[in-house]
Amino acid sequence: MARAGAFCGLCFFSFLSATEIRYSPVERRIVDQRLESFGTTNAARHDTISKLFETAGCGGQIADQPVKHAKTPNVICSFVGSSDSEIVVGAHYDFVDIGSGVIDNWSGASMLPSLFEGLKTQPRKHTFVFIAFTNEEEGLVGSAFYLRHLPRSEIKKIAAMVNLDSLGAGPTKFEKDRGDKRLAKALVDVATSFKLPLSIVDVHRVGRSDSDSFQDSGVPTINLHSLTQQTYPLLHSRRDQIGAVQHDDYYDSYRLIQAYLAYLDESLAAP
Question: Which of 202, 227, 222, 228 is nearest to 210 (CA)?
Fold first, then answer.
């Protein structure tokens, strides 16, 4: 079990100005199993992430989006809410051919199905779009392609983009310099309420992530990671292996992000 608290099968929490959030967290063993299912090629990871979404219950809502100049597609799982306002949750599944790319970024991609699974048990106000992006390492190719092929009217419907990139190297961090202030405040409030670790570490100066594609298109974004000056050298190195993951921290990140998404669904107004 995660060190920060007990597991609950169906969570109902009233906090943060009497906002009630509802979700069903996935057990730690399942979150860990999905993390440990990383493939050794990007094609294998595409196949695995599709199967994980299916296992999580996405079913007929899974779609591949072929991406120009990429060998593998974006994988999209949608959960339709009562409005057409969207919350996009993204993570890239591709990795560089050094090490196993577990931190960067199977840690983010393999969490997407668990986040979907935790939200789907309750009706949602927003439509949630979970996207496993291809070719982030080649210059944000998958996320940029996704946005280029959305009409401007559809981009305006995105209330928030939550990006997961390189979790599990330590406790959860978020980027403040390039993050939306409202989204950052909401994250801090949730972490405080659940007594889960969270701190600010800006990594934008040493690398871009898929949240930048959305921010460049005018979408409010927040980038969640686990990196510090000490752990950043894990990325793109032979040390990026499953053994580098701090599993207690990783599950704490899952718990925080799961609650955060449920809270955003209740608290964010349509754009």
Answer: 222
